[in-house]
Amino acid sequence: MTISEIDVDTKAMELSPNSSSDSSSSKDAITEEKFDQEYVTYNVGLIPSRYYEVLGARPKDVPAFQKLAITTLGWLRSTKKFVSSVSYITWRQLLSRSLHSMYFRKKNFYDVNVLSRKVDNPDQRMTQDVDKLCDTLGKVFTKIIIAPFIIGYYSYQAFANTGWYGPVGILVLFLVSTVVNKAIMSPTVQLVFDQEKREGDFR
Q1: Domain that includes residue 92, residue range
Q2: Total-model pTM
Q3: What residue stretches are annotated with the ABC transmembrane type-1 domain (predicted)?
Q4: Upper half-sphere CA count for residue 35 (Cβ side, 13 Å)
């Protein structure tokens, strides 16, 4: 059996129900915290424009409001960071266990390292690549979940204030940015891959 024949379906991961439940709870908690943070940040951002004169007059309750806003945002950011870190650890544990259970099943270890060279430095891949994957996933997960709602809301606001010029302009800017980013990042990604491969060969 070669590495290409290893079944990586989630049904073969042999994960316990408690582990799956913990991972699901972590994702739900991250999403909820992200929504709370976006809601508070958005409403705080509206206050200066709507109550500029009131805030400029420095009423007695401004210091208390500032303290409350800073405390609330700080708590939300800290909670989000904590839940993201816990989720990262949980995901890495689950993925590492699954990969190692397949790696050491029967003679897969020998096939991958001796008979097949399709995967370079498999030991390094199961440590560094899994670490980077879970870390990146923990950082972008909430952004991916909440992005459609944010895009839809602000597209509606842009349409309500500028007509169809606003949403179309945003879409054009996004497409242009994507093309430019793709052209710049593609060579860089290949260089990073080659660098990590050579580091593994050196070890």
Answers
A1: 3-163
A2: 0.52
A3: 75-203
A4: 10
